[in-house]
Design a protein that fits this description.
By secondary structure, this protein is mainly alpha-helical. It has one domain. Helix content is about 45%, strand content about 0%. The protein has 4 helices and no strands.
Length: about 70
Amino acid sequence: MNLFRSEEHVKAWPTYNPISEEAIMPLADWATALSGPMCRERLASDILSRRGNYLSELLSALEKLGRTGPFWTP
């Protein structure tokens, strides 16, 4: 994952796959999506038992960002 490239730069890569286009989003959106408890609490000893809650919160954050396509479906 390379978070610091422009959309044009990414699409010019020889190995660019159009299927991943939904994942190209501004850094602020990535920060919003990854600031939830799933990422903040990833070192907790009970993270596996709470992963269902964390996943739903991550998907909710992505939905607020308009990221609901098949790329984001677990």
